Amino acid sequence: MLEWEALESACDNCTRCGLCETRHHVVFGIGNRNADILFVGEGPGEQEDLKGEPFVGPAGKLLDEMLCIMDLDRNSNCYIANIVKCRPPQNRDPMETEQDACIGFLRNQVALIRPKAIVCLGRIAAMRLIRPDYRITREHGQWVEKNGIWMTAIYHPSALLRDVSKRPETFEDLLSIREKLREIGAVV
Ligand code: URA
Predict the structure, then answer these.
(1) Which residues contact 146 (CB under 8 A, 6 or more apart)?
(2) Which of 4, 39, 167, 187 is a good FRET partner for 110, with 20 to 30 A between their CA atoms?
């Protein structure tokens, strides 16, 4: 396991998969490295690749509003990362091989942060971190405990931008996450 500085530098120099050839920036993660709650998206989009920060495009604006509902803020009491740290071209889903190449970095981040809860943003993160056959439409908002960490998934902010009909149930999920964080004694 690497400490933060070495880990970030390993990511910055990574050539473990083909995404390194088209990236402008590695998108390592942002937030409080001692946070009790970690959010995990799938991978950087265009804006994120250009800026080197997760969720800074339109989906990021919505994510910030969602965080606010849970009394969270990306700069103070949570951490945000992705399954893959470099942008998949044309915003396609990250391939299994790319996820395999990158997941060790996220696992190292989890080991350093030691969050009490992880919220997967969308099905890609949920399938990778909760269960390979995770069904986001059926299971969003449900909690499972894995290796001492409470885990759930909600719809990805991009999905909520495309389909506003999913927003009311997501609002309920956000309120229940806020409640769960209180219940497990997470510092927010
Ligand atoms: N979508 C993601 O899954 N992650 C980002 O960082 C941006 C958009």
Answers:
(1) 130
(2) 167
